[in-house]
Specification:
Organism: Trichomonas vaginalis (strain ATCC PRA-98 / G3)
Number of helices: 11
Largest sheet: 6 strands, mixed
InterPro entries: RNaseH_sf (IPR036397), Tc1-like_DDE_dom (IPR038717)
Protein name: Tc1-like transposase DDE domain-containing protein
Structural class: alpha/beta
Pfam families: DDE_3
Shape: elongated
CATH class of the largest domain: Alpha Beta
Number of domains: 3
GO molecular function, one term: nucleic acid binding
């Protein structure tokens, strides 16, 4: 009886060959093996996922020295070890403000570690540091600091009075943007035309627990008479909301005139000795940031609407 014939197609043969190829350890061995089997360079590039130049280098080196060509290592550099990262962060935590160059010098002299400014910057960014200008704060004298501490201590010992405080303040917003940082296209000039004395608008408002007044637009040279005109509306409204209200105002000259103090005292209690340069004690400062944002947005919308009207045929 004749033995059964086993038919193997070319596709099956190729499958068996490639399975053997995949068991080879390196890509150079796979290239040489496929070349000996008679595969074209195009077929080798498809299976080994490499370029024609790589195939040429592998075959030439194997032909000359019977050794396998090893490609240079590429891709991202290995990450810095955890110990060096910890040292960089410990240095950063010990300094109030610093540059990457300062950290680089400390690493070199104290820890004998060589690290580039770029790598130090990457480590800092990955650990919630940012490179930004320092925020300016008013410089206070010892007397001013003592007054603030004394003032804050009083309210800590009299918390029952805090809900009755109605915080008032004026704030000026210039129509000229005071932030000179913006996104621009590369290679374009980064200039901003600025007026020396830009036009501005002054706001006034009062806020408190479960209370907010209207926002008043006042003149930039507000006088005692104009201030009292505003108080006529505000104080009566506050008195209706809170009969035990305490009116707060800062140390501006027009606020401290005897006529204005008497005017307020006729309606409610008033805080006279509010410490100077104390925005952190006045919660209304959080309101001004949003008011100024919407004020600038309003100017932009007005300009867009006007330009749209004039652009119509």
């Amino acid at each position: 009886m004749n033995e059964p014939r086993i038919l193997i197609t070319l596709k099956d043969l190729a499958r068996l060959q490639f399975r053997a190829i995949d068991e080879l350890k390196t890509k150079s061995q796979q290239i040489i093996y496929l070349e000996k089997l008679g595969f074209s360079q195009r077929e080798i590039t498809i299976h080994c996922h490499c370029s024609y130049s790589t195939i040429t280098k592998v075959l030439e080196q194997y032909k000359d020295s019977q050794t396998f060509w090893t490609p240079k290592k590429c891709g991202p550099k290995p990450k810095n070890n955890e110990q060096n990262v910890a040292i960089v962060l410990s240095i950063a935590d010990s300094l109030d403000f610093f540059t990457t160059q300062q950290i680089k010098i400390i690493l070199s002299h104290q820890f004998n570690i060589t690290m580039s400014n770029t790598l130090i910057g990457v480590i800092l960014k990955e650990n919630r540091y940012k490179f930004a200008p320092l925020q300016k704060i008013p410089k206070l004298s010892k007397e001013q600091k003592a007054a603030r501490v004394k003032f804050a201590a009083f309210w800590l010992t009299h918390p029952e009075l805090i809900p009755h405080i109605k915080y008032s303040d004026e704030s000026r917003k210039s129509s000229q943007n005071d932030r000179f940082v913006t996104w621009i296209k590369i290679d374009l000039e980064n200039f901003l035309e600025a007026e020396k004395y830009a036009k501005s608008q002054m706001f006034f408002c009062v806020i408190g627990l479960d209370y907010k007044s209207d926002i008043y637009f006042v003149s930039n040279h507000e006088d005692s008479y104009e201030y009292q005109e505003i108080l006529l509306d505000v104080l009566d409204e506050i008195a209706r909301v809170d009969s035990d209200a305490i009116f707060q105002q800062d140390g501006a000259t027009i606020h401290r005139t005897s006529s204005n103090i008497e005017h307020i005292r006729a309606k409610m209690r008033v805080i006279i000795k509010w410490p100077s340069d104390s925005p952190d004690l006045n919660v209304i400062e959080m309101v001004w940031a949003r008011v100024k944002k919407f004020y600038m947005l309003g100017i932009l919308l007005i300009k867009l609407k006007v330009s749209k009207i004039f652009s119509k045929d």
